[in-house]
Every structure is written in structure tokens, then in C-alpha cells.
Amino acid sequence: MIFFKSSFFCCFAFLVIFGVHSSILSGQKIHFLSKPPIWEDLDPLQKTITKKEFVRALKTIYTPNQTNWDHIELGPNYADIRKMYGKEIFYRLHFSDSSQNAVPNKKKPFIILDPGHIGGEFAEMEFRHFQIPGYRQIREGEITLNIAKILKKKLVQAGYRVELTRTDNQPVTEQRPKDFEKDALEWFCSEYKFKTLPKLEELTRKQHIIIENRKNLLFYRTAEIHARAKFIHQKKPDLVICLHVNAAPWPKDGTQKLANDNHMHFLVNGTYLKKELHYDSIRYHMIYRILRKFSSREIEVTKNIAFEFVKQKTIRPFVYLGKYASSVDKNPYIWSRNLLANRIYDAPVSYLEPFVANGKDTFEWLNEVENSESKDSVSFVEFYSQNVAQGIIEYFNSNQSNH
Ligand SMILES: [Zn+2]
User: What is the CA(244)–ligand 1 centre distance, in A?
Assistant: First the structure.
């Protein structure tokens, strides 16, 4: 049995976005595993957004804490967006004179469900696993997969087309940690200021663990999310739902004492930091999402889902204290954050983080026998999937009747 100090903590884990190193390719500053952006791919989206809409998207969702932009220069009816960090080369985006409809409405929406993490034999490696003596193991990747399977049934019954990014506890990517040995070592050298690549036998045990963890991270997070992004890009869904369960940090003394806390929050893409926007690939993705007008659907769907959860079980909203997340529309449960998944998935993304898995209440709920015959007890996965299904259905119903 392995106990991890910081295991099973979604929010914390994504903070290390900049720990996942970038590469400098022919002068471009690119986020690790991202391809150098081809700005001309935005050409079909020319003249599809007004200047007012573009500036509003930046100010309210994408860069709410910034009053000026280092890489975007606004002209009278265009914006010049820097193509390469440190270079005076710009992509000129022309604005339209009048507002155009955002995402087209379909009669039978196509939804991709993304069960967070991998689970199974990978749960320990991805720090999404814990076990309290005498109780079953809790693996986030397996809970989210169960939710996805139940949710799919509900949505299919309601007439939606639904697919999952994964249907078992195996990675989508074909890469494995061993494929990232060189990258992990290079990262280690730059992070710990080694001038040349050290010999492995000269490293301490602690340094070996740091490199090992980096190798694993590049596999289970970076490569895995890129593989899922590729799947989503090919499928072209109307909506992606990322399913997660949150967790609280374990006490600092190393014990695994369940927390007395429980909270919920739900994420949309946004709040890009200045330092993030230095990366050409990240800047490109932000502009792409603005032009595709993903955020209106993201926010509305997420509001509907959050509403269902809160209606059924009111617990406190999680509150971010850092500048890397911002509250959306003054809704205490909805936040915008720039995560790898909700940035590179090519669709509106609703990213769900309800409940604290290692909090007393949720832990007990997770341990109750599923499909209990008692009418009063609804299993955790059933409750979760029912609220998400209801939120999605409400959103598309009201959206269609409005058009
Ligand atoms: Zn998670």
C-alpha cells in the first residue's frame, strides 16, 4: 500500500503547467509536445468576430486580470497578433462589422465525455490513488470512468450521440514514461542549473526520483492529454465534458487523515497569464478559442450543470486564491482557468471538479455499496452522472427553443 502526500489533488497538479517545459524550435517558443502554430490556419475565421466581441472576450474571460497585452496590438478594424515570441512578425486578424452566430445548433448534439486520468495500474503513478486501511482503494481514474459510462447511457437515451475518450483504465497515448527519459533529464538540467548532462550514476537518490516523476508526468499528463486532444480533433464534437473529482491536500505530517471539508467548482477555459501568453502555441490556442466563440457554450453548459449539483446538494464553492483562476459572471461555483485539456481540446469544454474525495462525507459515500436497494441512497457515480446529464439536457433544450 502506498501513501502519497499530495495524491489525488486535481487542482494542485495542473499548477505545474510551467514545470512541463517548452522547447525552442527555430526561434519559436512552444509548449512541450505542442506543434509550432500555423497562424494561417486561422484564415477561415477572418472577419467572423467584431472588435467589440474580441476585446470583450479578452477582458472578461481570457485575460481578465490584464489591462494591456504584450503580443496583441489593436488597430481600427483589425488586431495584430505576434506570431513568434521576441520577433516583430504579426498575424493580422480582420474584424467583421456585424456580429455572427457562435456555435451552430444541431438537432442531435455530439458529446465527448473525457473521464479524467487513467486509473488501473497507472493510478499510483499519476497520484490519483489512496487507501484508508480497512477500506477499498479510491482511484479517481476509475470513478470518472464509471461516471462516464452511466452518463453516456443517460445521454444516449435522451437522443444524443456520445463517445468516450477512453473506455477502460488504459492510456490513450501509445507513449510511455521510457519515451521521455531524455526530455526529463534535459528538464532536470535546466531546472537545477546543470551546465552539462550529468551521468545517471552521479545523481543522488532524490534526484533520481525527481527525474522519474518528471518522466511519468510527461507520459500520464502531457502525452496523454495530447493523445485525447487528437481524438477529439478528429471527431469534432459539439461539447466535451471533462469528468473529475477533487481532493484536499493530506496533512503535512504525512498521515492520511480524511478532511472535514467538501466543496464543488466547475471550470471553463480562460484566465491566461502574461507569462503563459509568451508561448506561441498557448497564444495561438487562446486566439483560436476566441474566434471559435467556444466560451459562450462553455459558460452556459457549465452553469446548467453546476445548477443541478447545487440544487441537489448544497456544499460550499471552492475558492481560488491565486491569479491563475477567475470567478465567472459572479457565479461562486464557476471559474475560468487555463488547463492543458480545456485549452487544446478543439471544442467547448466543461471541466467538472465537484466534491472532495478524501473528505469524510464523500469518502463515506464512495464506500457505500453501489446500486444499493434502499430508495434513499443514490450512489456517488449515479448522483454525479444524473446531474451532468440533466444540466446538458437543460442547456440544449433551452438553446434550441431560443433559435
Ligand atoms: Zn482529476
Answer: 4
